[in-house]
TrEMBL record:
This is DUF2512 domain-containing protein. Pfam families: DUF2512. Keywords: Membrane, Transmembrane, Transmembrane helix. The keyword S-adenosyl-L-methionine does not apply. Signal peptide: none annotated.
Length: 155
């Protein structure tokens, strides 16, 4: 149920952002904007939020969402209709705004959705730059005194 709520929040946010950029600035119909929002939010939720975010962290997930959102908006926007202006600039503007939203949305996911799954036996969070862990080796050194004590012991 938490995944459905998180996906619904993402869909609503994508719809509002894309309605502003694509609807008002590029005059794409609201139905096409909702369809683009639905496809993008579902696709990016699976790839960026459920796969990349738990394994690589927030920055990597936000950086992954940017090119995927750009390509998705550019591709789906070209199918939505014939435009006097190119969809490249619309995709770029939308992808920048969506990536900023995604950066903060990932904090919500990490607190409310992803952490619970990891605690229940999900895959551990993988970080690219782990701190090195050093262990000290503890052993007796063969000092002269220890060698003499060892030789005196009855066998």
């Amino acid at each position: 149920m938490k995944h459905f709520a998180a996906l619904f929040v993402k869909f609503l946010s994508y719809s509002v952002i894309l309605l502003f950029v694509l609807g008002f600035m590029y005059e794409i119909s609201a139905g096409d904007v909702v369809l683009i929002s639905l496809i993008l939010s579902a696709g990016l939720y699976v790839t960026g939020d459920l796969y990349v975010l738990p394994r690589f962290g927030n920055r990597a997930a936000a950086l992954t969402d940017f090119p995927l959102a750009f390509l998705g908006i550019w591709t789906l926007g070209n199918y939505a209709g014939d435009f006097p202006r190119g969809m490249g600039s619309a995709g770029l503007i939308s992808a920048v705004i969506l990536s900023i939203f995604e950066f903060y949305y990932h904090y919500y996911l990490l607190r409310n959705v992803i952490q619970e799954r990891e605690r229940k036996g999900g895959k551990p969070k993988f970080r690219l730059l782990k701190k090195p862990v050093y262990h000290a080796e503890i052993a007796e050194e063969p000092l002269e005194r220890n060698r003499e004590e060892h030789n005196r012991r009855p066998t």
